[in-house]
Amino acid sequence: MTIFKMTSTRGLLNLALFCWIGVTAVHALTGFEKLTDLDYRGNTYYSIRNLSLHECQGWCRQEPECAAAAFR
Fold first, then answer.
1. Rounded Cα distance, 2 and 20, in Å
2. What start and end residues bound the annotated signal peptide (predicted)?
3. How distant, in Å, are the alpha carbons of 3, 29, 46 from that of 42?
4. Which residues contact 45 (CB under 8 A, 6 or more apart)?
5. Looking at residues 1-30, what average pLDDT do you find?
């Protein structure tokens, strides 16, 4: 019985984690669309820290696949 209880608890934790990740992804997509006023149809986001606004915009101009850059 102890093994069954541990497996059951692990399954519930995995389910909770999966649900949390799904909710987080939806919020990220909504945030991107509100910040950029663009519909994002892909599934790849890039996060780069410690850049100035000028560097962020320059990177997006040079990268052919960059549709929009949001600076925070």
1. 27
2. 1-28
3. 42, 10, 12
4. 28, 32
5. 57
pLDDT over threshold 70, residue 43: no
Which amino acid is residue 65, in one-letter code? E
Q: CB–CB of 68/38 below 8 Å?
A: yes
Q: Where are the domains of the chain?
A: 2-62
Query: Would the pTM count as exceeding 0.70?
Result: no
Predicted confidence (pLDDT) at residue 59 exceeds the cutoff of 70 = yes
Residue 21 tokens, joined: 């990740």
Q: Please report the pLDDT score of residue 32 as a whole number.
A: 55
Tell me the CA end-to-end span of the chain in Å, nearest whole number.
Answer: 51
